[in-house]
Amino acid sequence: MTTSIDPPQVDSERTVSVTVNGVHREATVPVRRVLSDFLRDDLGLTGTHVGCAHGVCGSCTVMVDGDPVRSCLVLAVQVQGAQVTTVEGLARDDHQGGQVLHPVQEAFRECHALQCGFCTPGFLVTIAAGLEARDAAEEITEEEVDELVGGNLCRCTGYANIKKAVRHAAATMREDAR
Amino acid sequence: MTTKLFGEPVRRREDARLITGRGRYLDDIGAGALAAAFVRSPHAHARVLDVDVEAALDVEGLVAVYTYEDLTGPMAEPLPVLIPHPQLHAPRTGYPLANGVVNHVGEPVVMVVATDRYVAEDAAERIVVTYEELPVVVGVDAAREARAAVHEDVPDNVAARHHQETGDVEPALAAAPHTLSFTQYIERSACMPLEGKGVHARWDADDASLRVYSSTQASTSVRAAIAAKLELSLDRVEVIAPDVGGGFGVKIVHPWPEELLVPMAAIRLGREVKWAEDRREHFISSAHERQQRQEITVGYDDDGRITALDVHVWHDNGAYTPYGIIVPIVTATQLVGPYAIPVYRVVVESVFTNTVIVTPYRGAGRPQGCYAMERTMDRIADDLGLDRAEVRRRNLITPDQFPYDHHLTFQDGRPVIYDSGDYPGLLDKLVALVGWDEAGALRADARSRGKMLGVGMALYVEGTGPGPYEGGHVQVLGSGKVLVSTGLTSQGQGHETVFAQIVASELGVPIEDVEVHTGDTRRFGYAVGTFASRAAVMSGNAVALAARGVREKAIRIAADVLEANPEDLEIDEGLVQVRGTPGASIPLRTVAVLSNPLRYAFDEAAKQATQFAKAGSDDKPPVAEGDAPGLEHRDYYSPIRSTFASGAHAAVVEIDPATWEIDVVRYAVVHDCGNVVNPMIVEGQVHGGVAQGVGGALYERMAYDADGQLQNASFMDFLMPYASEVPDIAIDHQETPSPLNPLGIKGAGEAGVIPGTAAIASAIEDAVGRRITSMPISPTELYDLMRNETAERTQASLQTGVPA
């Protein structure tokens, strides 16, 4: 399919409407604004971090319609109309005015799976997306654990405790699924 | 006591905010601030002939452009030489913005400030700088040859010649029954924290004060440097290290040009200005470490005991020497490791190259020293046909030899006197943990699968916790909250947790009541910084001393109120009580209220301390002589010299002779950092260090071409370990407390990384039977080595004929 479009000027603007963490958000931004900057600078959600800005480290990972996406490689205008989940949206309301952490957040704290914490939001979102996409009742395999943590860089932890946290979170979700 | 938390794997107190996206890293601060971007040199060595900003001026949103011409006063002078040393005979530093010459790719030439980073980069792109290229020096060998000079006035490229010796090495070598001489190389890697550097500055013109946030390891010294360079009174400047996304050494260097230029722009523009380093900037304009050429001559007897060691290191310090010769000194002094070396001479020539500066990266010269010493042990073992563990054992300092004086001078200017340790104990544990004596079976098993297997080990001693000092302040509020502050900064080490554990234990309060603040000059103005595995030793002891001061005062006040003997009082769970007398107690928060005699009752609790409520002698002033209001204490810990942690690592590697892929299949660590405050955190430090060690041994290198262009300045090309590259790590602990400090602790931050390169080189050599003389080593390099007919074979492989 060939579509002819006018090349947009870098300073041309579009209004982007998205649902972020369950809340409708809208901002008018230059078309070249990448999603990570849109979330951080236009919507004030600074939990999403930019570690390399070229799609390798995974710190900026967010969910777009449930799938983990490197928000530094996506333009804000590309997520028009989508459901975006950032680290700020992983916890759920407990309906008593507080929040319940996602099992993977709990597991990261329990297993000392973070040190400086900069890459952590990307890991949390990637792992949460992966765990939510699998059958929680099934025991997690080492191959699955490796797959879930294998695409993100961490310079502090050496990954051992991140893997441990994935196992821990999967076990919690398995327990909850019973 | 229920509040004894020292030594417990307490969950981290910083995690709640970091796992929910509520961390506050540099780039999370200052929404709406102006953004800075830099025009950086594309050449490794050039004269700047002209800077034409004309084309940038049309960019909508441009606010300001600065070149060297715009710098005034101390800003127009070279950046400071942070750590001067008499043997650093040719110190050189750059300018905040290039002054006529650039000496490495990435050196800042122009700063652009605009409404946002996109616009700032648009403008920066349009600025035309005209350069006249100059000859380029890359690598230690080129620097030695000195066919070109990095700095015109240093024609031999030698910045420093660091020299230490413990005896007359030449006759000792001449008298040695055996000698060996060899040369080996180690390449550059870098800290690569996931968060780059960054600076945010806000000038309050009415108050004439500057607040700077910097992703730094040394906020107090950044503050002093900004005050000096921008000619501000120190009291008008505050510097705060917010949450810092990793440091590993690179953020101890300061002031970075951006740390001065961003505040300068904020003052001149009267607007908030921010710069957050991008990844490419971090590669080409921050700092690297590790590159050395090592020429080693060792003398030893028939049993493999070293009688003399002579080491000549050529150390690449990059284009400038802002951090002095700390890395060379650390290599020189930590090289000897856990061994008794009767006569030792070391010369480190620190040379200029047209590359990014070399300053401490986790280990800070120790991995190189360990690589020199441990590979020497391997050579001796191979030459004499002895087991590598046995040769090491014969050379170890024994537990009865402490304190052990190496007669060397350490990086803190103090003698290298090991405080305590049990090195044979470490080695025994390591041999058991990795299964050293069963290597033959592992080898046979691998062979049956068509793989080559090798084992290697490396031991180290790490000087940790160097002075001059750190301080701590502990204050109990009337609410019962205990505020702890220290000037030293945090980059993920869990200081909020470990310092809280220490204070909660010392003071006898629940850890939930303790709140720790680090790296904020508003709270604590005196500090040195976070480096050399010193935080737990230095600030840990400082906050312990401060807590003891508070405890003493609390007991004195409570004894007065309870009409008890101070010696009978204890504090537990925030309650000061008479030991063994239930009911005779007073909450610490009430003691805090009473410690501050009041005129005004601003709340219910305060009433107790007002002038008509409080009982007291009419003959004494409300605040006794020599006393001060408030339940708080400030104290400092200043050590006589460094503590010395130690450890031993072993690696088992499997090599696939079809692809020459090197797989670390087993990794064992025995670790001794004295008393452990939080074993969970120490283990995390070891894990992270080992990952960096494996990266440095097998994957990471700074690939400069002959023109000084860094060919792999991205995470696509510079290979940091993902989870798939890091082996499972078996850890065993040993605790030999330090006699030098009240808590008996030694540092743990860098330990994991130090022996990685040495142990893995040893394992690969064991597997393939070829001398490994340059690290890191890639599968391609190993393939080339195996195909090279002239490559040196180990004696072991010649005797067994295996592997061919």
UniProtKB/TrEMBL annotation, chain A:
The keyword Lyase does not apply. Pathway: Alkaloid degradation; nicotine degradation. Pfam families: Fer2, Fer2_2. It comes from the Bacteria. One of its GO terms (molecular function) is oxidoreductase activity. Residues 14-90 form the 2Fe-2S ferredoxin-type domain. Keywords: 2Fe-2S, Iron, Iron-sulfur, Metal-binding, Oxidoreductase. PANTHER family: OXIDOREDUCTASE WITH IRON-SULFUR SUBUNIT. This is Carbon-monoxide dehydrogenase small subunit.
UniProtKB/TrEMBL annotation, chain B:
The keyword DNA-binding does not apply. It comes from the Bacteria. GO terms for molecular function: iron ion binding; oxidoreductase activity. Residues 20-135 form the Aldehyde oxidase/xanthine dehydrogenase a/b hammerhead domain. Keywords: Molybdenum, Oxidoreductase. The keyword Oxidoreductase applies. Pfam families: Ald_Xan_dh_C, MoCoBD_1, MoCoBD_2. InterPro entries: Ald_Oxase/Xan_DH_a/b (IPR000674), Ald_Oxase/Xan_DH_a/b_sf (IPR036856), Ald_Oxase/xanthine_DH-like (IPR016208), AldOxase/xan_DH_MoCoBD1 (IPR008274), AldOxase/xan_DH_MoCoBD2 (IPR046867), AldOxase/xan_DH_Mopterin-bd_sf (IPR037165). NCBIfam families: CODH_aero_grp5 (NF040766). This is CO or xanthine dehydrogenase, Mo-binding subunit.
